[in-house]
């Protein structure tokens, strides 16, 4: 039987492991596995981009970069304290990589929660900040979609985003989930108390933030700018590939697809958003082949190119104890 070294006390072996170094390398390894699994799609989309207009592709890259700035403003708008701007921006870039490895924004949420805790915010307020961000980002996306559809009502057939016959099933699923949540809150007193305390903290934070014009502007301005910049990224990729669909119709297709795909959480929206985007572009007037090429090009610029640098930044932030 193997014996522990005399200088290592019982239970001390785990403490001697380089956990921080392991956590620093883990994002890069995860991204490498992810890239390997999606390599055929990356190659296919890359071939399409080789024949695209490079000036429009550079515009797509610029829109993607500005998207991280918009997210940083929104995150700052969810807390009263002033966050370190450089670290906040770097955290959003790193969170983008983490977000593509876990579904429903869990990766970005975990990174930002750790960042806020490192900035000195208690867990209750950090959690309230994340909830407010998700609410503001969802509201901003829906508001933009409604405004554009009001101005261009013939730009898109929204019923094309959901396959025939799935509407009742989705409605029943949503109703069952809501009923299960309500039953759990009614039956489990500790859970009900936890939710009540969380809502009290969240509402207090939201009221305080809206008494500060700068915070309210950062919150709602960023939440509108981020989906607008993402839509602009798809528009510029479509222009680079000469997709025969008006730019505003492409923007509406992106917003509608991202809202519809929110019902099917996947890592970074990959899969659900992609399928909804192709369908939305087809209903807007593009062929299936052209729509697929545009979506693949959009994914390469917004997801695959920043993925490895984002993982490296995340590892660096872990090593520097920023997150």
Helix content: over 70%
SS element count, helices: 13
The CA-CA distance between the termini, in Å, is 40 Å
Radius of gyration from the CA trace?
A: 22 Å
Low-confidence stretches: none
Kindly estimate the percentage of residues that lie in beta strands according to DSSP. Answer: under 5%
Structural overview:
The structure is a single chain. The chain is mostly helical. Helix content is 76%, strand content 0%. The chain is built from 13 helices and no strands. Helix 11 packs antiparallel against helix 12. The model has no long low-confidence stretch (mean pLDDT 80).
What can be said about this structure in brief?
With 323 residues, this protein is mainly alpha-helical.
Output the keywords:
323 residues; mainly alpha; 13 helices; 76% helix; 0% strand
Q: Could you outline the blueprint of secondary structure elements for this entry?
A:
Layout: H1 12-16, H2 19-37, H3 39-50, H4 54-76, H5 85-99, H6 106-118, H7 123-151, H8 166-187, H9 189-209, H10 213-240, H11 247-261, H12 272-284, H13 288-319
Helix pairs in contact: 2-13, 3-13, 4-5, 4-10, 5-6, 5-13, 6-7, 7-9, 7-10, 7-11, 8-9, 10-11, 10-13, 11-12, 12-13
